[in-house]
Design goal:
Elements: H1 2-5, H2 10-33, H3 46-53, E1 57-63, E2 69-74, H4 82-97, H5 100-105, E3 107-112
Parallel strand pairs: 2-3
Antiparallel strand pairs: 1-2
Helix pairs in contact: 3-4
Length: 126
Amino acid sequence: MFLRATEFDATQAAEKMVQYWSRKVDLFGPDRAFRKLSILDFEEDEADLLALNGGGFQALPETDDAGRAIFFSDRSPWTNNSKSMVRVFWFMCHVLVEDEEAQKHGGVALLTTNLDASFRDDQQIR
């Protein structure tokens, strides 16, 4: 996965691996970071389970016409626990990148928001 992402540059791939494992330990702790994550890992934390079951992130079962994996995100059910949301996002992305075809063809992200479209020109979206 890391070699393919860096067009087989071993040095860059090694750097990405270090970043990956550092971030995974930060997010999941040493107990869960070094094993393959499953949906069952999210049952240990109520906020994680709520974030997972909320439907805010979904890996769709089909690819687009170009063979790319499809990732869907709807902000409306997101919880206020940002670390749980990042853990679920990580897990869903991992589901996609573990697929060799997705590694070769890439992916597409579909994101929705429930922003009020009636804002004035002088207002900023925050």
